[in-house]
Amino acid sequence: MSYQIEIRHLRYFLAVAEELHFRKAAEKLYISQPGLSRQIKQMEAELGLVLFERTNKKVVLTKAGNYLKDEVTMLLKNLNDTFDHAQLIQEGMEGHISIGYVGSAMQNVIPELLLKIQEDHPKVHYSLREMENPDQVRALVQGEIDLAFVRLDKVPKGLEIRPVFEDTFSLVLPSDHPIDKENFQGLKSLEEDAFILFDQSYSPTYYEQVMRIFEQSGFHPIISHNTVHASTIFRLVENNLGISIVPSSLGLGFNMKIKLIELDKIPQKTVLSVAWNPLNRNPILEKILSKASPG
């Protein structure tokens, strides 16, 4: 079946679907409200669908309209990305890659990847966004980023994931704490201290690993604070408000009055993985993905 739908119809539909208000959508599109209403009715008639339920007080998406909103959002994004890549190619570039990452990935994995890109694909533009794990997963699904560097062992159905870097854990103490690498006898000696940890929402798998470390050390920790930001953890430790356990590589990027003791004798390791959406049509995704090798 052939539909006589133009790109403008899709943009008009999406504006109304987002605003759920014809006047506001018309203002956003710089067209008249009656003109917008006619275009939407034309689209509904062409598709044989009712996309909106209209009353005097509100506009609501139908089930078909809600489905179409998600699909059109992705369709228009892919189309815009295609035009953007075509423009870059015309300008002599290979394309653009958008990379999301958790903070610890910037200590080694991301810089190494960028060096490989610069060496093998100097005509690739890239953008970087530090994001928490759940935000990266959402951004991958919605096509807002091309690659995600996460501390997760699994992702939602439809996405792919593979490990790229295995890291040890380290104990984080204030710089003036009496325990150091030479006299450290194990975590059990710190069971009366308050711990500042990454929140479970940061990564359920990571959180379970840390809890297992405490369990194997023979005590349940006193947790005074939870956060998703490494800088917050380090700042609180620096000010003697608690101690922590973090991926060892995370300590490389901060210059604070703290010290790290690597827990290299325990079996637990934390893994950084790269995730991507196999439906992503970015023409250079596979080339860049191949550079994110396990290390």
TrEMBL record:
Keywords linked to the UniProt accession: DNA-binding, Transcription, Transcription regulation
Organism per entry: Lutimonas vermicola
One Pfam family linked to the record: HTH_1
Name the record gives this protein: LysR substrate-binding domain-containing protein
Top-level taxon of origin: Bacteria
SUPFAM superfamilies, per database record: Periplasmic binding protein-like II, Winged helix' DNA-binding domain
Family indicated by similarity: Belongs to the LysR transcriptional regulatory family.
Keyword Transcription listed: yes
Stretch forming the signal peptide: none
Annotated InterPro entries: LysR_HTH_N, LysR_subst-bd, WH-like_DNA-bd_sf, WH_DNA-bd_sf
Domain HTH lysR-type: 5-62
Gene3D superfamilies for this protein: Periplasmic binding protein-like II (3.40.190.10), Winged helix-like DNA-binding domain superfamily/Winged helix DNA-binding domain (1.10.10.10)
